[in-house]
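Subgroup meeting minutes
Present: P.N., E.W., G.H.
Scribe: E.W.

1. P.N. recapped why we're keeping a running log of single-chain structure predictions: easier to compare across weeks, and new members can see raw inputs and outputs side by side.
2. G.H. added today's entry (250 aa).
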Amino acid sequence: MQPIIQINDLAKKYRDAETYSLNHFSLEILEGEIFGLLGPNGAGKSTLISILCGLIEPTSGHFTINGLNYDKNAFAIKKIIGVVPQEYALYPTLTARENLMYFGSMYGLKGSELKDKVVESLEFLGLLKFADKRVETFSGGMKRRVNLIAGILHQPKVLFLDEPTVGVDVQSKNAIIEYLQKLNANGTTIIYTSHHLAEAQEFCTDIAIVDCGRVFAKNTPQALIELTPNAKDLEDVFLSLTGKGLRDGL
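Output recorded in log:
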């Protein structure tokens, strides 16, 4: 497999900040992976994703997505990536179908192609019978599933997911994971952030544990467990690398 994301010596220091949020950060993500980007609060995950999605600029360093440099190919990159944020990016007074038709049209989809993709996705995630209900009436799990569909209607080559199963019931979680695995099997590379380490251990093909703006370890979940003394699961690996100290802060 070829690298689909190549990050070289990336750094980011926010104005008036005392330390770098990213510090000489380098990482390679291969095409077709379900890649877990794991770390405690303040580790630099959100900053990294924001840079890769073109929301903020790095202080130094560079990256490519699908061989494209963002400085010269921003529009081309945005066409091949999808983003599903942790917060719901939906219009509450619109129906699920209306939300998805709107977001699909923003990606350039139209006509029967868009209508068919909306119906297919809603049906797979058990939402078709609620398609014409306003999103504000939905449960948290239902909103999370619509939020996911909104980010993947255009079948992105690379999908960024931030806590895709947070606050949902077991049934919704299973439906979301199954849908993402199907998407990955059809060729989408997934970059996934979460604090659910047991879920990440089962879901991800490869993982990087980051802290203090740099990569502490990168390997398959099983290899990380085997290489960490006395570790029986990914949580033990995570605590061994990042410590047990609390990360509360403003």
